Amino acid sequence: MVKEQTLKMNSSILDGRKVANQIQEELASEVNKLKNEGKKVPHLAAILVGDDGASQTYVNNKIKACKKVGFEYTLLQFPESISEEKLLANVDRINNDEDIDGLIVQLPLPDHVSAIKVTEHISPSKDVDGFTNENYGRITSKNPGLMPATPYGIQELLKRYNVEIKGKHCVIVGNSRTVGAPMSTIMAYHEYATVTVCHIHTENLPFYTQQADILIVATGQPGLIKADMIKPGAVVVDVGITRIAADNQRGYILKGDVEFEEVKPIVSFITPVPGGVGPMTIASLLLNTLKATKARY
To answer: How far, in Å, CA of 51 to CA of 69, rounded?
Structure first.
């Protein structure tokens, strides 16, 4: 009981909003410096297809972040009925626009459009989401290209809270192409952690999660990780965010893959949902856009 109380007093939030704001302030200072030196100001373009409310919110948040740091931005919106051919033509147009440094295509796309085909059509030098095969493959390089945005954001969040990673056992639950798989490479190859990758089909999942010094969960399964699955004092990063129907003004609540309230008292650090990984993903997009700009000019 005494141990639990001590851990509870020492537990801390990995505040993604706070760190993202710090990064945006740093970027704003960098943009002012570029302007004063007469150099190229980063320019981010976003493509939004359809009128999905969540996608619109994500894109709006990215535009707000661009405004805050002084980036130029372009938003191209298309109806859900747009053909794959026409969408690819617009990706080509942005690829060939010398004034635009970064491009994001907001997912998901309509069923008749191949997200893989569209993603691979983006020039790797402008792929600030880090989704193309070229940027994905370059994670294993000591000179990587544009890093996948969410794993990059998690890496930066842990660093800014001085979380010790080297030599620690990092367990990742979720093996997706956008988060789990690249995150495992970053943690093992760049941060020198010992990495175990699990997923929702892993047998006896608690056996692995209970061994984690650092637990990163990205499955989209609300409340998957309970307190009895956590090693006391561990660092927990919850990437999942799911809308759950609720009797409130919005009609829903946002819930992560980790049971936050029951897990928080026994860990050393934990990300909230929302306000943890999400803001860091946007901050990483901005960092990648600046990197892309500097690489081209």
So the answer is: 27
Cβ atoms of 292 and 101 within 8 Å: the answer is yes
* Nearest residue to 287 via CA among 113, 31, 106: 31
Q: Match 């493959």 to its residue by tokens.
A: 137
**Local structure of residue 264 (DSSP, 8 states):** G
Q: How far apart are CA 237 and CA 172, in angstroms?
A: 9
Measured distance between the N- and C-terminal CA atoms of the chain, rounded to whole angstroms:
59
Under 8 Å between Cβ of 222 and 253: no
106, 155, 231, 255: which one is catalytic? 106
Whether 5 shows a pLDDT value over 90: the answer reads no
Tell me the per-residue pLDDT of 109-150, one tens digit each, with 9 for 90 and over.
999 999 999 999 999 999 999 999 999 999 998 889 999 999
Q: Which of 62, 126, 231, 255 is catalytic?
A: 62
Q: What are phi and psi of 290, to 5 degrees?
A: -65, -45
Kindly state the tokens that stand for 85. Answer: 């051919």
Question: What is the Cα–Cα distance from 113 to 87, expressed in whole angstroms?
Answer: 9
Tell me the pLDDT tens digit for each residue of 214-243.
999 999 999 999 999 999 999 999 999 998
Q: Is 56 a catalytic residue?
A: no
Q: Is the pLDDT of residue 6 over 80?
A: no
pLDDT score of 11: 56
Our answer to whether residue 106 is catalytic in this structure is yes
Rounded distance between C-alpha atoms, residue 154 and residue 164, angstroms: 13
Residue 294 annotated as catalytic: no
Q: Out of 15, 101, 127, 129, which one is annotated catalytic?
A: 129
Q: Give the Cα separation of 165 and 163 in Å (integer).
A: 6
Domains of the chain as residue ranges with CATH: 38-123 (3.40.50.10860), 149-278 (3.40.50.720)
Task: Supply the pTM of this predicted model.
Answer: 0.93
Report CA-CA distances (Å) from 211 to 51, 95, 131, 156, 206. Answer: 43, 45, 30, 23, 9
Q: In Å, how far are 14, 15, 282 from 19, measured between CA atoms?
A: 9, 6, 11
